[in-house]
Amino acid sequence: MKAKERDKILITGASGLLGSKMIALAREHYKVLSTYNTKPLFPGSVKMDITNESEVLHVFRKFRPKNVVHTAAETNVDKCETDKKHAWKINAAGTRNVAEASKEIGAKMVYVSTDYVFDGEKRLYREEDEPNPINYYGVTKLEGEKYVADLCKDYIIARTSVLYGWHPWKSNFVKWVIESLRKGKQISVVNDHFNSPTLADNLAEILLEIIRKDLKGIYHTAGSERINRFDFTLKIAEIFNLDSSLVKPIKMSELKVWVAKRPRDSSLRVDKIQRELKTKPLSVEEGLWKMRETEKMKGVILHGGYGTRLRPLTHTGPKQLIPVANKPISQYVLEDLRNAGITDIAIILGDVYPEKVKEHYGDGSRLGVEIKYIHQGEPRGIAQAISLCEDFVGDSPFVVYLGDNLLKGGIEKFTKEFGESTYDGMILLCEVENPQRFGVAEFDKSGKLIRLVEKPKEPPSNYALTGIYFFRPKIFEMIKRLKPSWRGELEITEAIQLLIDSGYDVSYKFVEGWWKDTGAPEDLLESNRLILDEMAPKIQGNVEEGATLQGRVSIGKGSTIKSGAILRGPAVIGENTLIDERVYIGPYTSIGNNVVIARGEIENSIVMDNCQINVHEKITDSLIGPDSKITTNLGAPRGYRFIIGEGSRITV
Question: I want to staple 161 with a disulfide (CB 3.0 to 4.6 A). Which of 103, 115, 204, 390 is the partner?
Fold first, then answer.
């Protein structure tokens, strides 16, 4: 379901644990604005300091969300105790600012509060029980509740407890336990401190259903089980196959590292929310199993190969960095992995300018992931590239994604299914018209996958393997048994066939929508058309009066469209680009950053960064590499002068 303009949702603290889970779920059904204060996790996030009243109002007035989910908070209980001014400024005054802005624009406000508003003298608190916080964190969160209830007509106060889950850099109790025990560290955990541990993914689902059902008031939205921290830790060790003998019980009175008091038993009763929603709060075991299934998935992007069919563009850089709709192909791949919850990613580098890949992606933090680089050098097959990842993968399931593939709809649902399954491998298939060009699947009469054939003369089906594979570590054993094919490569189809022949469970799924292997110029242009067809228009540059924009056209920051220019979409113009008055940009054209087009007509083409074009002719169906200059020499006799790279094809 496409997000509708009226279904806008603003999420504060989007770089945090809960906020990031909310973004991942909400963007499928809402137009989402993610806000952050210190470090963005998602591209397109907007910096918003909730302690700055005018800044909050500015963002709210500009975006005008229908719903606001306020997850931003100072959750360090001891820091709140030692720096009370800081705690009040964020948790109380900051919440007041968000509540006032929500009131002004008439938005529903969902405020995430805490079990620490209670003193812990009883157990399994109900929504109607009287709050009585015993630490300053609880005091400030309770004040936030009061501001929300006083200022907002339409609100939800969602109290939760001991949030846990995976996050690229933020820690929480469960992550701390797992990381400590994996390193063989002995840890002491209190056995007289009770809570209702809550998987952040589950809470995000609950909050979105609360919004959809338009509930109001106070709800306890925590895990369904009361448990003490020591027993919780033992359950973590059991489910993650860790050494529980490293966990030692201790009393709260013996723990000297806590500065602030903790309520002895702040567990929450969740009967009310269970009655209202289809989404049920998870038990400790259910939540930890779900976390385990999603945690271990790692991503591998293959970024090698020579790209001979794309020369001369690949003489100066890897094919995966060629832009489609002004974004490198492999960035679509990386963002697809991230959107599927996979943030631990290895990029396998070839020997075609690998430093350019590192320069573009860095450590991955700009895109909300962590990247490890592994050098393959000379390409010797997909299976050989995968074999280099054995140490990176460890005992985790993982997905291999060819860096020059594009898939509509992404892999999120396939990732979830594989993570929750016991499959040893899973391949994604796409029906194609020319299966002779690909690895092809063969099925028996019952539909079971029985064989994979590489580029067959007589295909057993029209279902081609896409460049996306899900594996468990068993695949490494199969790869070690391979011998080079006639091409001198270790073939991934042969490794998967060994899995099948050895009795392992290899499943398959059919992709929905389009899939493109961008190995040739015509594939790049078609991918550009497909992506532009779905791109929403966004005008951030300067369009002079007298310029004509028709259809879906996006214009980047700092760009100028001069009076008299005609742009017919779908098309995209990058940043700091000049389109002069004597220019026509036709449909399905992508113009990069820092480009000057002084004269000419361009259609169904990709013009990369830093180009200059001043021609009297029409340019169509073209790929124009970065830093190129194309001009018309009117003073010379009619003719063509070319400086052409290896393997180029020209029609004049």
Answer: 115
